[in-house]
Amino acid sequence: MLRFLTAGESHGRGLVVIVEGAPAGLELTTATVAEELARRRLGFGRGPRMRFERDEVTLLAGVRHGRTLGSPIAIEIANTEWERWKVEMSPDPGEAAAVLTAPRPGHADLVGMQKYGLSDARDVLERASARETAARVAAGVVARAVLAVLGTSVLSHTAALGGVEARAEHRPGPEDRDRVDDDVVRCADPEASAAMVAAIEAAQRDGDSLGGVAEVLAFGVPVGLGSHVHWDRKLDGLLAQAVMSIQAVKGVELGAAAQQATLRGSEAHDSIARDPSHGSGGGFRRGSDRAGGLEGGMTTGSLLVVRATMKPLSTLSRPVLETVDLATGESATAFKERTDVTAVPAMGVVAEAMVALVLAGEALRKFGGDSVRELRRNAESYLADAANVAHLDVAAP
After folding, report:
1. CA atoms within 13 A on the CB side of 20
2. Tell me, what's the pLDDT at 394?
3. I need a labelling partner for 97 at 20 to 30 A (CA). Which of 116, 149, 288, 309 fits?
């Protein structure tokens, strides 16, 4: 099993992630992690923090000479602003520069203060911040390395932003990563991209924010990841939970779920055909991808499609949201931390990482292997058997 744990606060000394369960022999370098973290900072509409924030990566454990050892991997992402925040965020006893008592609507502030019995909203917002997703993206680099052994890749693009939708015929392929990242809003449709930029500029002038949809595509996913046997091992459920856990994501769609709800059954499902050349599908291919590469809680070997819907960010440049000052009980205006007009393009990169982590975890559960060689051998043997499913008898010795 692949599992990970993140620690750290937005303005603390740094973030740390520990990844356990990765096989020995994966290629992993500081530069690879730093490159992926730089993708998370992409996107027109981001605030000034993205212009001066740098992710200083240190591989603390589990890697030697660019390859994983099979032991737990520890990655640190240092906070380059720590000197400005070391008094405010000191782990040792001290006085805060300002106690934040007017929780922001749409954030974890108030509920977190109530749940943990806290009187300063900073004790909540520092951990609830989307800055934590940098550690997830770092963990996702390990997951991508696992998937690469199986010939699987993951890519996201901005499918909708501020009411503008990209055209379906512009959906990118696995070779289009650089082209998507080179676009200012990570949209594969040039016409939609220009309209998205205009929508962002309009919201920026008004001091407002925008939400949207990032679509994550996984190519070459082996058939049979997940399970129909237990509710908590169904892959669609695991993917939905993982992507929904991203800050400000309020909805997850698998395949063409919303469209399927409007169709008759005769129009909504994917036909099956024999195709010996389709290796990831075990010799079978679907005629369409309405199911998003998932049936019965398991991957079909077809294109995996996960769409993440992000709400408009809750912190606005012009503070118009009302709240209550918990120190006085009086109405107040919500305080403002630095914010973006939109973070949908960056959220797509985080969603990529979460999808990769789920897929890699289920691949390791399915195929096992303490080394890359063993993992590859097990997967190849399984897919060869899957192509002969009509001749298999699981009850036979």
Report:
1. 5
2. 53
3. 116
